Amino acid sequence: MNEAIDRFIRYVGVERALSRHTIWAYSSDLAHFSSFLSESGIESPSLVEERHILSFVETGCPNTSARSRARYMSSIRSFFTFLVREGELSKHPMELLETPKFTKRLPEYLTAREVKLLLSAPSQTTAWGVRDRTMLEVLYASGLRVSELLGLVGNRVNLDAGFLIVTGKGNKERVVPLGTEAISWLNRYLTEVRPLLDKGKGKNVVFLNRRGTALSRQFFWKSVKSYALSVDIAKDISPHTLRHSFATHLLSGGADLRSVQMMLGHADIATTEIYTHVDRTRLKQVHKKFHPRS
């Protein structure tokens, strides 16, 4: 079983070029599944039946939420689809199983006032503060994923034309425009701050830490949390919250869904459509608060 999983993980990493986060999720999910099967004496994919998968999803998943069960089933389905396509299995054990449905959670986002507060939180008088302010400005102006922001390299930044070229999920490139505020802060950071941080080890990565290497996701995540608390934003936010805010505010302002999809790098427009539901929820709240017969 583990050898088959290893081949699948190499496949999604090399041939499909999925993100490290997605590869890690597949690996973790399938490791739990393999461990569960091993306890029942099942060591080969050819011995796995529908009942084993149902038993794992119902009793063996480390997390029993509907969302987690759906993710586990998706990982297992992809694994067996790979084995069938490679000719290692003649029959898919999940061909009659449906992935459990779950209610999509609306993404947390910031109001325009909260965004302004968060962007103003970093100090403008220190190198680290200018760097962090620039990162927040770029996130909100572009809707980048945090991995795309931290992996941004200098030759993909065109301040004169006002856009970035980023590599997103599936190793797909897209062009993302920047607003004047983000351009201004990025120009300041690149000319005044980055030269101070650059120790020749950054491999042209735009945003550097004190050691002159790329920032980690964990460090930036903690920084965003800290800045939010410092300006009394009570919401449980992360760097991804600015991506949600970017999309929500664009659609609220009248942007068309297809353009927002392109800027976010969503393969399926259905993923982008969730932000229209966020806006509808806000409209309902406004109606309930202000309409005399609500």
How would you describe this structure to a colleague?
With 294 residues, this protein is mainly alpha-helical. The protein folds into 2 domains: 2-85, DNA polymerase, domain 1, CATH 1.10.150; 112-289, hpI Integrase, Chain A, CATH 1.10.443. 58% of the residues lie in helices and 4% in strands. It is built from 13 helices and 3 strands; from the N terminus they run αααααααβββαααααα. It has helices at 2-15, 20-39, 50-60, 66-85, 112-120, 127-142, 146-150, 180-197, 217-230, 239-252, 257-264, 269-272, 274-290, and strands at residues 157-158, 163-167, 173-177. Strands 1-2-3 form a 3-stranded antiparallel sheet. It is globular. The termini are far apart.
Tally of helical runs: 13
- What's the rounded overall pLDDT mean? 87
Protein structure class: mainly alpha
Strand order of the largest sheet: 1-2-3
- What is the strand tally? 3
Shape: globular
Helix content: 55-70%
In whole angstroms, the N-to-C terminal distance is 58 Å
Which key phrases capture this entry?
hpI Integrase, Chain A; DNA polymerase, domain 1; 294 residues; mainly alpha
Give me the secondary-structure topology:
Layout: H1 2-15, H2 20-39, H3 50-60, H4 66-85, H5 112-120, H6 127-142, H7 146-150, E1 157-158, E2 163-167, E3 173-177, H8 180-197, H9 217-230, H10 239-252, H11 257-264, H12 269-272, H13 274-290
Antiparallel strand pairs: 1-2, 2-3
Helix pairs in contact: 1-2, 2-3, 2-4, 5-6, 6-8, 6-10, 10-13
